[in-house]
Amino acid sequence: MAEQDEVILRVEHLCQYFKDNKAVDDVSFDIKKGEVFGLVGESGCGKTTTGRSIIKLYDITSGSVYFKGERIAAGTKSYKDNIQTAKANSRREIAAIEGGEGSLEEKKKKIEEKKKELEEYIAAQRKEIKSAKADHKRHKTVTDIQMIFQDPIASLDPRMTVQQIIAEGLVIQGKKNRAEIVEKVYNVLELVGLVREHAGRYPHEFSGGQRQRIGVARAVIMEPELIIADEPVSALDVSIQAQVINLLDDLRHQMGLTILFIAHDLSVVKYFSDRIGVMYYGKMVELATSDELFKHPLHPYTRSLLSAIPLPDPEYEKQRRRITYEPLKEHDYSTDKPAFREVLPGHFVHCNQAEFERYKKQVEEG
After folding, report:
1. What is the dihedral sign for C-alpha 150, 153, 158, 164?
2. SS3 category, 78
3. How far is the first Cα of the chain from the last one, in angstroms, to the nearest whole number?
4. Which of 16, 101, 170, 260 gives the lowest tally of CB atoms within 10 Å of its CB?
């Protein structure tokens, strides 16, 4: 569980756009030290993009990512948009002053005040842009955050031995003592359930589960504080999935790791995670503790995901009804716009005011 509620990672208004495609749109959450934070949603909802943006494989469009209190990534689009909006608003206000009542001197004075306000605002936004670029450049690499990739085949270089793959991070970091590097590789191989003899082999000589253990070893050898596990079990057999999850859980306690666990299987996430964030179409639609989310699923999309979980019970399966989520039928955001609101302490839902009142009543009635 989280240690003393110390926040190790904070994501604020993260946006990751690829031209007109809003892969991640205004996502905010934090992860406490020592906890497992699950991120779930269907394929294409932005889970992996969120993880890759945090670890800086992408330059984020806007928003900020803070690691241990320091901003390690920042986007500038929001500041640039603010400047353009301010300029447009200023033009309208000046036009209204020019066409309004009052003497010429009074109008000139008001216009000058508006222009001065605009200049000060633009200067403040440009200062933020400069600060964001400086933070991003200063924290170009953050070795305290490591990633376990989804595909255990594509993420390993077939031309490198296991030893070279696992030791690559240490070499890039500047470690030169070969004997020390080899010994660390042997130790971490044994830590993830492999043996020293595997160090001289190539990735194609291993099964899927073993390849994923190599991926885990590559991440933990850097002794990170935060691991982003991007669907680490989705390509594996069910029995192997359990082994890898248990391995991650053991490493979490042995090494004091914090884990961002990305998956689309809610039953796996419930078993492993302390808190869960649900994403849909680039947005975070619900966030709560694991037990709370399963006890009081409020957003229609969360209820839809939960209804899709099969159970090994023939009688239950006969009666199980799949809930289909249709956003246009479920929500009317034409006038009452949605926001991320706290329905219960620690339980957040993306909803408008009318839905917020309905959700609160729903929880009170049990």
Report:
1. positive
2. helix
3. 27
4. 101
Measure CA 89 to chain center: 34
Cβ neighbours around 156 below 10 Å, total: 22
The per-residue pLDDT for range 236-252, each reduced to its tens digit, is 777 788 888 889 999 99
Q: Which residue has the tokens 């986007």?
A: 75
Report pLDDT digits (tens) over 164-207.
999 999 998 888 899 999 999 999 999 999 999 999 999 999 98
How many helical (H) and strand (E) elements, i.e. helices and strands, does the chain have?
13, 12
Q: pTM value?
A: 0.86
Of the CA atoms within 13 Å of residue 327, those in its CB half-sphere come to: 9
Q: Are 37 and 51 in contact (CB under 8 A)?
A: no
Q: Produce one character per residue of 35-55: b if its CB has 16 or more CB atoms within 10 Å, e if not.
A: bbbbbbbeeebbbbbbbbbbb
The DSSP bridge partners found for residue 24 are 16
**Coil, strand or helix: which one is 283?**
strand
- Taken in order 49, 53, 55, 57, the sign of the CA dihedral is positive
Task: Report how far residue 165's alpha carbon sits from residue 218's, in angstroms, rounded to the nearest whole number.
Answer: 7
3-state secondary structure 285-316: EEEEEHHHHHHCCCCHHHHHHHHCCCCCCHHH
**Mutual angle of helices 178-191 and 162-173, in 10-degree steps:** 120
Helix (H) or strand (E) holding 147: strand 145-148
Residue among 226, 107, 206 nearest 165 (CA)? 206
How many beta carbons lie within 10 A of that of residue 227, not counting itself? 25
In tens, the pLDDT along 72-98 reads 888 888 888 889 999 999 999 999 988
Q: Taking a C-beta distance cutoff of 8 angstroms, is the pair 109, 96 a contact?
A: no
Tell me the domain boundaries of the chain.
Answer: 84-138
* Helix (H), strand (E), coil (C) string for 91-123: HHHHHHHHCCCCCHHHHHHHHHHHHHHHHHHHH
